[in-house]
Design brief:
By secondary structure, the chain is of the alpha/beta class. It folds into two domains: about 45-465, ANL, N-terminal domain (Rossmann fold, 3-Layer(aba) Sandwich), CATH 3.40.50; about 480-580, GMP Synthetase, Chain A, domain 3 (2-Layer Sandwich), CATH 3.30.300. It is built from 18 helices and 28 strands. α17 (about 535-550) links the parallel β27 and β28. The radius of gyration is 24 Å and the shape is globular. Bound molecules: 5'-O-[(S)-butoxy(hydroxy)phosphoryl]adenosine (WT7).
Length: about 600
């Protein structure tokens, strides 16, 4: 059975956590893994959804909102919003239908239609959810911008998307957008949520909504019409806009059933921000297509607040991230054990490697393990997971979902060699064909095509598979940084640093961090006439923070006489990292003499 090949990359083997049937308080959706996989087809999965009335296609907003609002779930709470200052606002499915219909009518009145891009820059407020689903209802394309982005990432993304509409708040507009307005040529309308200050060239969303019709008939929607645009980062170049279509909802729905074990009466809490794809696929869409009640918490992480939400809101299924779990661990299991978590049935995590310790800590603190799962912006939905009815192997991402074929491969020139033997490290690859797969990188066909070879989508992650088919994450094949679950492209940070008058060159890496996995660390070489100093270091950190925002800016910055580059002029970030961590420098034969 457990041969050496089933050992995780680290070589340690934590005992698997099994969940005897006697512990089930509901029967999990996926009990027999092999049989369910064998019987599964995406055509059948599609039958769990309605389609637009009259055979007019498939629209995410119909599946998530309107079909429930027309039936017995009309009065069920769809979103329970907890504001930072202690307010509670509930939107039923009927309320959500009305709000999204009004929003779609607002867009119509502005002349925004099929395929037009609507961006949102907001914290976790109800209007963000209404704007997202209202945009999709209208056949327009929703693109979220993380509210902790600074002006630079906002500008880049709005311009790549060619967004025509931006929904935001007066505070965010003033702080991050107003000064840029002249360099956002595509942006025609800014709709502000919340009364208060009014700015030239903006409109009050509440007033527009109040004047709009509360009924909206969803226009015919082809399953391949674009619905969502999600930005992600690579090692080089600008952010990439991953294009997702309405058909993705088939995968959102089916994967949530298998990997998050959604059941009819669940109260679900996805802690991810809708500025990132987890917060839309599973923070907005999937719980609604299943007719569940979702908790939306406006506030940032706070251990006591989170425990109170889990306990008092009687959350049954919780989807969170390793950084948050590590922060909870730091506050100790006692605080969790003092609570009543009897309602909590299923704990899951995504976005970065989940330490085996953290999986086990779930048992200690909540009486249940965390179930790690794996996916990417590009895959649109969960691809690999630890399931409710299967044993959890701490440190493993789990097994591919029904409908998903994964492999470990090796790139040899332009071809792919599949590594069948277990235990060997290679690149994680997936066979295309699932409905939520990205259909393009906006305006970057070359980069899109580079992700595929020999009938596989190449994920850019390194992993191993053990002899029982569980996948173990090893690392990324590129220089992209993962900090608090967010992907950060080093190039985006370097580009801002070199705009500072004192900076000649910059190289940016992810430095290992016990909580955030990595923090952004910058190395800077100064122009002649500038000397390293504490004042300049602080100035540069502040400069990047203002431009990039707290989520992307470096937390640490060191001066270097020069930044190592190869002979082609490419920054050798791996070398910067090896030097920073005191690791072997590896092959430096291409290093440019400095
Ligand atoms: C990258 C994708 C998950 C969707 C939202 C983030 C890393 C993701 C895991 C995991 C180890 C993970 C990978 C992946 N990642 N889940 N369970 N274990 N690493 O999507 O921002 O596109 O990031 O996150 O490196 O490629 P994303």
């Amino acid at each position: 059975m457990a041969s050496d090949a089933s050992l995780p990359a680290s070589g340690t083997r934590w005992p698997a956590i099994t969940k005897p049937r006697s512990d089930w308080n509901v029967v999990p959706n996926l009990v027999d893994y092999d049989r369910t996989r064998a019987a599964f087809s995406w055509e059948n999965a599609r039958r769990d959804l309605d389609g637009l009335p009259g055979g007019r296609g498939l629209n995410i907003a119909h599946e998530a909102v309107d079909r429930h609002a027309a039936g017995r779930l009309a009065t069920r709470v769809a979103i329970r919003w907890l504001s930072k200052d202690g307010q509670r606002r509930e939107l039923t499915y009927a309320d959500l239908r009305e709000g999204t219909s009004r929003f779609a009518n607002v867009l119509q009145a502005l002349g925004i239609g099929n395929g037009d891009i609507v961006a949102a820059l907001a914290g976790r407020i109800p209007e963000l959810y209404i704007a997202a689903l209202g945009t999709i209802k209208n056949g327009s394309v929703f693109t979220p911008l993380f509210s902790a982005f600074g002006p630079e990432p906002i500008q880049t993304r709005i311009n790549i998307a060619k967004a025509r509409v931006l929904v935001t708040t007066p505070a965010l507009y003033q702080k991050k957008v107003e000064a840029l307005r002249g360099s956002l040529p595509s942006l025609e309308h800014v709709l502000l949520v919340g009364a208060g200050a009014s700015f030239a060239g903006t409109r009050d969303l509440a007033a527009l909504m109040a004047g709009a019709d509360s009924q909206f008939v969803i226009p015919p929607t082809d399953p391949n019409d674009v619905a969502l645009l999600h930005f992600t980062s690579g090692t080089t170049g600008k952010p990439k806009g991953a294009v997702h279509v309405h058909e993705a909802v088939v995968a959102h729905h089916a994967t949530a059933r298998f990997a998050l074990d959604f059941h009819d009466d669940d109260i679900f809490w996805c802690t991810a921000d809708p500025g990132w794809i987890t917060g839309t696929s599973y923070g907005i869409i999937a719980p609604l297509t299943h007719g569940l009640t979702s908790i939306v918490d406006e506030a940032d992480f706070d251990a006591e607040r989170w425990y109170t939400i889990l306990e008092k809101e009687r959350v049954t299924v919780w989807y969170t991230a390793p950084t948050a779990i590590r922060m909870l661990i730091r506050t100790g299991a006692a605080a969790a054990r003092a609570r009543d978590f009897r309602s909590l049935r299923f704990l899951s995590s995504v976005g970065e490697p989940l330490n085996p310790e953290a999986v086990r800590w779930g048992v200690e603190a909540f009486g249940r393990p965390f179930h790690d799962n794996w996916w990417q912006t590009e895959t649109g939905g969960i691809m690999i997971a630890n399931f409710a009815a299967s044993e959890v192997r701490p440190g493993s991402m789990g097994r591919p979902l029904p409908g998903i074929d994964a492999a470990i491969v090796r790139r040899v020139d332009n071809r792919i060699e599949v590594i069948d033997e277990p235990g060997i490290q290679g690149e994680l690859a997936l066979k295309p064909g699932w409905p939520s797969m990205f259909r393009a990188y906006l305006s970057d066909d070359v980069r899109y095509r580079r992700c595929f070879a020999d009938g596989y989508y190449l994920t850019g992650d390194l992993a191993r598979r053990d002899s029982d088919g569980y996948y173990w994450f090893v690392g990324r094949a590129d220089d992209v940084i993962k900090s608090s679950g967010h992907l950060i492209g080093p190039f985006e940070v370097e580009s801002v640093l070199v705009e500072h008058p004192a900076v000649a060159e910059a190289g940016v890496i992810g430095k290992p961090d016990p909580i955030a996995l990595e923090i952004v660390k910058a190395f800077v070489a100064l122009k002649p006439g500038f000397e390293p100093s504490e004042t300049l270091r602080r100035e540069l950190l502040a400069f990047t923070r203002v431009r990039l925002g707290a989520a992307v800016a470096p937390k640490e910055l060191d001066f270097r006489p020069s930044i190592p580059k190869n002979r082609a002029g490419k920054i050798m970030r791996r070398l910067l990292k090896a030097r920073e961590l005191g690791l072997p420098e590896g092959d430096t034969s291409t290093l440019e003499a400095s």
